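It would be a great kindness if you could assist me with a short task in structural biology. A protein sequence and the structure tokens that stand for its backbone fold form the material at issue. I should value your view on which stretches of the chain appear to form regular backbone elements. The record follows directly beneath this note.
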Amino acid sequence: MTGKERILAVLDGKVTDRTPWLPFAGIHAGKLKGYTAKEVSTDLVKLVESLKEVNKLYRPDGQPIMFDLQIEAEILGCELVWSEDAPPTVSTHPLSETSDIPNHIPGPDEGRLPLEIEAMKQMKEAVGETTALYGLICGPFTLASHLRGTNIFMDMMLDPDYVHKLLDYATDVSIAIAGYFIDAGMDVIAAVDPLVSQISPDHFKEFMNAPFGRLFDSIRNKGAKSSFFVCGNATMNIGPMCETKPDSISIDENVSLADAKKVTDEYGVVIGGNIPLTSVMLFGNQQDNMKATVDLIDSLDNLEGVIIAPGCDMPYDIPVENAIAIEQAVHETEVTREMVKNYESGDLEFTGTLPDYENLKKPLMEVFTLDSATCAACTYMMATANDAGNHFGDKIDVVEYKYTTTENIARCGVMGVKQLPSIYINGELKHSSLIPAREVLIKEIEAYL
């Protein structure tokens, strides 16, 4: 079977010769050819050249064209902050001070859409016969959050009608973008919506069922397959996500793949994931990546309806040999299992010091994130923390620990951090994965003053 046949067969519920491998090499693709993240996000020639290198080196069964959740938001008026080694991030929210509902649906000739669409067409011609190509769109909830900012979480409680209307609009945008990508030859449309992990199952059913159901129906009616991609601890929302009827769901390391698969199997939905991005792919060695992949595969009762993939967009600086090691472990599992059967990974040592929480001069709010500059859920968790911090000024301290250094990974272990993003106040866990309302966080801080 070709990789494309393998991916599509899994999504159709058929038996395949081996488990598919789907590397989410977004801005990481640029590193393979010496280009910055911004270059592969804005330059067609460099983007396509980098994507072809991903296809050559990593032998993917499926491959995304871009992993950029800001393209739609940028067209709709959000300002972006650019980085040389990370995707751009949204820095302004045009609806933060108004309850208006936009009506503009981006056309295929706006913003960076022409770049992405042309890259899709060129990759379809180059590798489309053998590789399943993924078009990634910003999901309706995250797009609505880009436009509205953190206010949307309070809106869900105080003004639900407005949220429904904003989500309807965002879904219209998502459907339009998905249509452009399908017309450009994409086999699978992935709605990437990190903020879905930040709401309760009740809020999901109230606000997300109709938008996502409508989106996946539209993709299905256009003849393409769909994926619902969520980051963070979405464990409680796996069932509700399946009820919106995507063909597949992708999860990150915050969710147990084995436990999630038990749920997705009940709905006949394919599950994808969830190799750890930083602790294994970025900072591990080849053996770490082989063993983590084999262990992930072995954690499952069966491999039917499974696609092995990184938990999210691959960090820019992931060593090439680590991704190659994962491909080897997925496609040649028995051989790899024998290679690493006696291998033991060393634990990361925490060499820093923890604050003396019992004797702090003022309250300390610690925010543990994957990286607020690249992870949408972390961005909004950190924004809420900073907003609350600004309310108190120098009466409190606020610090972020990004899960992008070995020291902070080790710190998470010492602190017992289970989910990212999380907020601790004076060493006590207050919010794990779910983003709090500003007023809630302010009241919690006041209790320490």
Remarks:
- The chain has 19 helices and 13 strands.
- The mean pLDDT is 95.
